[in-house]
Design a protein that fits this description.
binds fructose -6-phosphate, 6-stranded antiparallel sheet, single chain, Rossmann fold, alpha/beta, globular, 3 domains, Glutamine Phosphoribosylpyrophosphate, subunit 1, domain 1
Length: 616
């Protein structure tokens, strides 16, 4: 979850390192640090608790001069977010410095070993042991060989790591290592670069090398990059990819925050994803990498994901079961991984849904399913991510970089991607004819304009946000597919406004949550025109009867709702009620954002969270 960036080349390092950290800050933002190999042959660094902006301020007076350096933005796992625990971490001699993303599971044992051997460890982190293990190797058999020293150190580690290491006695070099946590490096005519993901590299190159698990890379000042496998043998053609992300896509471009920008980008993202997907013989989804026969044979689908992506899975379950008539199991990855009995058939398809493609729980689940002989298909947003690389097929949702920690455009794009998958499966299995599939495709193509319309009504969300300003809790209700919209709305609200929110299928309210209601208690009901509309209206009546304040998401012109509730968030009628969640959720994204702003919260970087959750 932490962000790493490194540079060695002809230019001063600090400017690029700090800019790089800013683009990676979504990975973690509780403390940050930077270290360069100075022209005097010593390491010079600055670290501090807090955000990258605090580090930038400190660096203004620190005058860090050096053309080789590493930097880090942290999401604490071991040890509080203090200056002492922030990275980079040095060895005893102060000549080796390390930034780390991941978790060292055997760090207690290693700390004991290092202390017994005279090392002085100053932080509470698991990461610091790595610097001291490298020091041991450097002082011993690997003197003068930073790659060898890093290889020797990682040989003693258990857990996950992406590392970048500099050594004052190996000037002009950065050595990187990867196991479990992502790391990309790049060779350019202007030096060599390393980063946790491609975001900071998009401004300097269009081609990156993705380190594989077990690999170690040496970056040199000339821009040369050498990659070594776990046996220390140089890899001739390391895995690489072209980045087609526009660097400006990760900037605010005039919006107040990334959440506002990413909400606004949803129509275009969906259009991009849908373009050219309907051929004369059906839905075009070659990414599935399964023949029509193999698809037709699929008799069970497992959908596995976390957080917002899990909510995509719930919608996908309905779409696949309804359209393709295949039984679907949808599970949280963190639960699935510890389930004893997973019932798979030889023709089970596993679909992992993950915006980042790096969520540790989801990757573990995918590996487990592959281990059981299932084909694994990934729906993801991040090009070349681990989920993409470890799957049999991958559908990129092409939403562009999602910087705000709270997922918005990836959520709606992933739902549309799931709909395409459901249609493809339905056709291959003969559950749906071509004409019907075309009709559904046309319905999907109507979504961008419907979302544009909802976005133009953001003033409704702004007005309704006042209801939540001083609230302590809120209840979200919806039925059928829109129970999921309620779950997602509650998740958005709690994660960015720190307001406790709970979501229930509306019909379940009477079995417990109704006890929460009292005058003024805020309730959000999602009640579009659909087959369960009248039942949900009855639930709203129950809410109103207890004096609660109700905000409803309803279809244009629905007076039966407007006459009951305090605020209506209007949505235009959607061509298919199964697609309403893709439209209705946009109001709940905007509502959560307005509430968070009213309550003085940082909508892009909510406390305690990180965009890419690479620990289990
Ligand atoms: C909430 C949110 C998270 C992520 C979850 C999974 O707004 O963004 O709940 O959905 O951490 O992340 P991915 O999709 O990257 O696997």
């Amino acid at each position: 979850m932490c962000g790493i960036v490194g540079y060695t080349g002809p230019n001063q390092a600090v400017g690029y390192l700090l800019e790089g950290l800013k683009t990676l800050e979504y990975r973690g933002y509780d403390s940050a640090g930077v270290e360069v190999v100075g022209t005097d042959g010593a390491l010079h660094g600055v670290k501090c608790a807090g955000r990258v902006s605090a580090l930038v301020e400190r660096c203004e007076t620190a005058n860090l001069v050096g053309t080789t350096g590493i930097a880090h933005t942290r999401w604490a796992t071991h040890g509080a977010p203090t200056e002492r625990n922030s990275h980079p971490h040095r060895d005893c001699s102060g000549r080796i410095s390390v930034v780390h993303n991941g978790i060292i599971e055997n760090f207690r044992e290693l700390r004991g070993y290092l202390r017994r051997n005279g090392h002085e460890l100053v932080s509470e982190t698991d990461s610091e042991v790595i610097a001291h293990l490298i020091e041991d190797a450097w002082e011993g058999p690997s003197r003068g060989d930073l790659v060898g020293a890093v290889r020797s150190a990682v040989g003693r580690l258990e857990g996950s790591w992406a590392l970048a290491v500099v050594c004052a006695d190996a000037p002009g070099q950065i050595v990187c290592a990867r196991n479990g946590s992502p790391l990309v490096v790049a060779s350019t005519s202007d030096g060599a670069y390393a980063a946790s993901d491609v975001t900071p590299l998009a401004s300097v190159t269009s081609h990156v090398i993705q380190l594989e698990n077990g690999q170690v890379a040496r970056l040199e000042q000339t821009g040369r990059v050498s990659v070594f496998d776990e046996h220390g043998v140089e890899v001739g053609a390391p895995s690489s990819m072209d980045i087609d992300w526009d660097a400006s896509a990760a900037t605010l471009g005039g919006y107040a925050d990334f959440m506002a920008k990413e909400i606004a980008e949803q129509p275009e993202a969906i259009e991009r994803l849908l373009t050219g997907r309907m051929g004369s013989r059906g839905v075009l989804l070659d990414e599935l990498a399964l023949s029509r026969e193999e698809l037709a044979a699929i008799d069970r689908v497992y959908l596995i994901a976390c957080g917002t992506s899990y909510h995509v899975g719930l919608i996908a379950r309905t779409l696949i079961q309804t359209w393709a008539h295949v039984p679907v199991v949808c599970d949280y990855a963190s639960e699935f991984n510890y389930e004893r009995d997973v019932l798979v058939t030889p023709n089970t398809l596993c679909v992992v849904i993950t915006q980042s493609g790096e969520t540790a729980d989801t990757l573990t689940a995918a590996r487990r399913m592959r281990g059981m002989g299932c084909k694994v298909f990934a729906i993801t947003n991040v090009l070349g991510s681990t989920a993409a690389r470890e799957s049999d097929g991958v559908l990129y949702v092409q939403a562009g970089p999602e910087v705000c920690v709270a997922s918005t455009k990836a959520y709606t794009a992933q739902m549309v991607a799931s709909a395409l998958l459901a249609l493809r499966l339905a056709e291959a299995r003969g559950a749906m004819g071509h004409e019907e599939a075309e009709r559904h495709y046309r319905d999907l193509c109507a979504l961008p304009d419907l979302i544009r319309e909802v976005i133009s009504r953001s003033w409704q969300d702004k007005r309704a946000a006042a209801v939540f300003r001083r609230a302590h809790s809120a209840l979200f209700l919806g039925r059928g597919v829109n129970a999921t919209t309620a779950y997602e709305g509650a998740l958005k609200l709690k994660e960015i406004s720190y307001l406790h929110a709970e979501a229930y299928p509306a019909g379940e309210m009477k079995h417990g949550p109704i006890a929460l209601l009292e005058p003024g208690f805020p309730v959000v009901a999602i009640v579009p025109e659909d087959r369960v509309h009248d039942k949900t209206v009855s639930n709203i009546q129950e809410v109103i009867a207890r004096g609660a304040t109700c905000v409803a998401v309803a279809t244009d012109g629905d007076e039966s709702v407007a006459s009951l509730v305090e605020h209506v968030l209007w949505i235009p009628a959607a061509p298919d009620e199964l697609l309403v969640p893709i439209v209705a959720v946009v109001h709940l994204q905007m509502l959560a954002r307005y509430v968070a702003r009213l309550r003085g919260c940082d909508v892009d970087k909510p406390r305690n969270l990180a965009k890419s959750v690479t620990v289990e």
